[in-house]
Amino acid sequence: MSKIQACLYVVLLLTVCLLFSSNIVVAETSTIWNKAYGMYGSGRQVIQTVEGGYAIAGYTDGKCLLLKIDSSGRREWSQTYGNGFFSCLVQTVDGGYALAGSGDMNFVKTDSEGNMEWSKNYTNSGVPFQINSVIQTSESGYVLAGCVSENLPSLEWDWTIKTNSYGDIMWNKTFGLSRGNSIAQVILQTSDGGYVLAANHNFSKLDSGGNIQWTTNAVIASSLIKTDDGGYLLTAGNGGGLIKFDGEGNREWSNVYRFNGAKWSFLHSAAQTDVGGYILAGVTYPIYDGLGWVLKISENGTLEGEASFPPESGINNGINSIIEADDGNYVFTGFKNAPDRKGLLWVAKVTPASVIPEFPSWTILPLLIVVTLIGVTVRNKIRKNWLE
Questions:
Q1: Under a CB-based contact definition with an 8 Å cutoff, are residues 72 and 93 in contact?
Q2: How far apart (Å, rounded) are the C-alpha atoms in residues 324 and 351?
């Protein structure tokens, strides 16, 4: 064997080793920590707190739950607040928390240790309010968006409430039909003091008094975020759909995602990343069992990588909320099934490498081309030497 042939074999060997070693690195470093905390239930939203840990709103054993963990995933404390579930939370300017959802206390304000300061139970003509989104406004009040229904999940209509800092209602609005499946899902405050509201099939801009300024057709929303370019990204509660809007509600692009051709895929949450693009999360069903699903996409919606998190036991995993932490890693919450098929509240922290491999598959083809060119060059060199 000539020296040139030997070099070629070394290049091929190194290429193969690099491919396999990169997969090993991803497998070993993808999960930083993975916790269930022995709680039956589900995490519905996770936020990073000002002190660097995380707070999770959800439910456990039929009770509304606030769970506080440190940056390493260790539980610091947890509190329950009555029957029902929390869908959403925000850390307030005083370091406490405002949590909202459904149950006998559908809006709760706590101090920084989770001790309840006050609670509200809003109803519309005696019909309970299911709150899907809460924000603290620039003047330290709150805006809540959701729906009321006499017979869930039928006869639902949207309801949005503006309160002062003590939860007293200042105004309330409904934007859909007075009766008929119009659910407000997410509300955000805009720089002009107004709001954007994502509801069933509608994306609307409201002024500071809750009056509609414009509205456009959309999908059934599951999450809505502001983007760095002044627009908005809306994820679909069904079908794995995604829509990017500019700041005036004009659609810029849309896309639909499926995990490896899965029959059903659902996006539940989105966040913009510091490296550009977005991180998405939800659940996908390749056959019947649900898998936790995380995707990284570019700023124009191109899929850059994805990962699934199969259940360790039971039949389903699902992710309800994902954020990018200050250290650039991703933290998500949702549910996973225990051996008795009763769901466990789930919180995990993973590296970007778990979604986008350190040695992406798209580099394989260029490597093969390079190796082929080297092989052709070596072959021609050997043939030339032989002819001479």
A1: no
A2: 10
| Residue pLDDT, tens place only, 152-174 | 556 678 999 999 999 999 999 98
Residue 317's contacts (CB-CB under 8 Å, 6 or more residues apart) are 283, 290, 291, 292, 309, 310, 311, 334, 335, 336, 337, 346
Is residue 23 included in any domain, yes or no? yes
Domain count, the chain: 1
Q: Is residue 15 part of a domain?
A: yes
Residue 4, token pair as written in the block: 């040139």
Q: Which domain holds residue 1?
A: 1-30+368-388
Query: Does residue 381 fall inside a structural domain?
Result: yes
C-alpha–C-alpha distance, residues 76 and 79, integer Å = 11
Report how far apart, in Å, the C-alpha atoms of 39 and of each of 43, 58, 62, 112 are. 10, 11, 11, 22
Predicted confidence (pLDDT) per residue in 314-359, tens digit: 778 999 999 999 999 999 999 998 767 678 999 999 999 888 865 4
What residue has token string 């083809």?
365
Q: What whole-number distance in Å separates Cα of residue 388 and Cα of residue 385?
A: 5
Domain annotation covers residue 146: no
Radius of gyration from C-alpha coordinates of the chain = 25
Q: Which residue has the tokens 């002044």?
A: 230
d(CA 41, CA 61): 6
